[in-house]
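Batch 3, record 17
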Amino acid sequence: MLKAPFIGAFFILVRMIDLEFYSPIEPIFHPLFTKEGLNVFIKRDDLIHPFISGNKWRKLKYLLQKAESQKKKHLVTFGGAWSNHLLATACAAAKFGFTSTGIVRGEEIQNDVLFLCRLFGMQLHFVDRESYRDKKSIFKRLFDPDPSAFFINEGGASAEAVEGCAELVSELEETYDHVFCACGTGTTAAGIINGLAKNHYSALFNGISVLKGGDFIGSEIKKYTQSDSDFVLHTEYHFGGYAKTTPQLLEFIKRFSSTTGILLDPIYTGKMMHALFNLAEKNYFKKGQRILAIHTGGLFGLLGMSERF
Ligand SMILES: *Cc1c(COP(=O)(O)O)cnc(C)c1O
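Prediction for the assembled complex:
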């Protein structure tokens, strides 16, 4: 039998904040790509973890390590009622030995994502849209005297998140002419752009804004990247705005999923992949080019729209 101190050491090892994960790159075959002579690939960050999925693990990794090094025990974060980030934080908190609170924007409701957050032990506080804007003051009001509480911004947006997302590039073993990724806050985009520069990759980064009027994402990206970083932000593929959709987008997702075996969500990855197809049709790419799409995960967004398909 193990003596108690050894058992203690075992738990410390288990709770080390890192995740062995699997994010393979797969080719996508489609008659359009064959016709245009394009080689299209998808990096399956959606397979990183069922709940700490896609870019959310990359964004959380260094924040969790920082929380641990500051001896924080309680993660407090923010999101909408279908937030992939809330779910990822709830699961990661449970996995790595933290408690968690999710501050949810809007009136109190129940849905599949919040249900899973609760199962992972997250305490939920609903806050009206007006007060929600001032996240620091909500944190202060609810947790200020609590030295164990650790503030994580909405979506995990932070320098730590940018650093985590940059690591994606060091996993690439081949070269690509274009990299495609959906953008909400632009944090993931900034990380990948920095990773490309650091690894001397010449691929052009293409961000797809999932929000209407997404030009501001360009300035968000520039806050975290070198001034001479080159990237393209496509702002015309928002389908009406954040969490908005159209029958055309849903039809595209259905067709893509039923012919590839890869699910896309209507909030982020569906818009990104639709943009890639549309740009291929418009001869945006040159014959023979290699294009890498990042599947940033977030498939629970599908559940919120299941009755619309
Ligand atoms: C959160 C999320 C994004 C957006 O990431 P940002 O870093 O905010 O730009 C993209 N795709 C999916 C699936 C997400 O859940």
